[in-house]
Specification:
Blueprint: E1 5-7, E2 19-21, H1 23-59, H2 64-71, H3 74-113, H4 121-136, H5 139-153, H6 162-188, H7 191-199, H8 204-234, H9 246-257, H10 261-293
Antiparallel strand pairs: 1-2
Helix pairs in contact: 3-4, 3-6, 3-9, 3-10, 4-6, 5-6, 6-8, 7-8, 8-10, 9-10
């Protein structure tokens, strides 16, 4: 019989004993609940104090009336909301299309870098060159190079739509980062897993498909989601090519009304998109950590 449990005198109708918590265990749980309530109360009170202090500091500053008029105009907010909301839908479209191609490109590059046969050396070299070059170019600069460079070539069949060109630039940029994430996940699988698969007469492709990749993908989901949180925000960079996405719509309203409130509208919409995914990413990361600490499979 443990310290936290004791057997009841009367059995159930089924004849099995009934286990109830001991007085010590009940007192311990009550203390933990009380401690948790105190922690929540202190955290809430301190948060309220900090928020109120920030509000007082901002609203009492000399430039607050001008900031309120320029960035927090209710009229400009209402006027810009429909167009910016329509623009954010284009941002979502860009994000979803780019995300699909990024996953495919990143996984292919990671797999190519894992090929060890000498005959595949040129492909490995190209994969390394791709990841090094495109991780070294800022995304905004790559959007300019792709968005204005490809149309300038006047190639037959080359895309000229700014949305398509923006997606290509995002895929090239983020594909390099995601390739490294996938490669790290693949290399994190213990070599004994591959050896065991090969001892069962599985080919290299079958080993990667059925043994290595399922484990690697599960392990890299949180960092992948972090990259896609950043991608959601950086879809706004496509505005430099002219598509009427959220940032471009906000800029049009700003130039028309000479008020920066439309930028606040766009910022709030991006926050509404990214915060849920960021919290979901944290949840997955915490769950993976708990499984690893408990000896489970990540």
């Amino acid at each position: 019989m443990t310290d936290g449990q004791s057997a009841a005198a009367a059995p159930e109708d089924t004849g099995s004993p009934v286990w109830v918590k001991s007085e010590r265990q009940l007192r311990r749980e009550a203390e933990l609940r009380a401690r948790g309530r105190r922690s929540v109360s202190v955290a809430t009170a301190s948060t309220i104090v900090v928020v109120l202090a920030l509000i007082v500091a901002i609203t009492s500053s000399p430039g607050w009336p001008r900031v309120r008029e320029t960035f927090l105009s209710p009229e400009a907010f209402v006027a810009a909301l429909p167009d910016v909301l329509r623009g954010i839908l284009l941002n979502i479209k860009i994000f979803l299309i780019a995300e699909a191609f990024i996953l495919v490109l990143g996984l292919l590059v990671a797999l190519v870098r894992g090929l060890r046969a000498p005959v595949f050396f040129p492909l490995r070299a190209l994969a390394v060159l791709y990841t090094d070059v495109f991780r070294g170019i800022p995304t905004i600069l790559l959007i300019y190079l792709v968005g204005f460079g490809i149309p300038a070539l006047e190639l037959q069949g080359a895309p000229s739509d700014p949305v398509t060109l923006g997606i290509i630039a995002l895929v090239l940029s983020y594909g390099a980062y995601v390739a490294e994430v996938f490669r790290a996940g693949i290399e994190s699988v213990h070599p004994s897993q591959r050896a065991a698969a090969r001892s069962l007469a599985l080919s290299h492709g079958q080993t990667m498909r059925y043994v290595v990749l399922p484990q690697a993908v599960r392990r890299v989901v949180p960092p992948l989601l972090n990259d896609f949180v950043a991608l959601q925000k950086e879809s706004a960079l496509v505005s430099v090519l002219g598509p009427l996405e959220a940032l471009r719509q906000a800029q049009i309203h700003k130039d028309t009304d000479f008020n920066f409130t439309p930028y606040l509208v766009a910022a709030l919409l991006f926050i509404a998109l990214t915060v849920p995914m960021a919290r979901f990413t944290d949840h997955l990361a915490a769950r993976t950590a708990r499984r690893q600490m408990g000896g489970g499979t990540a």
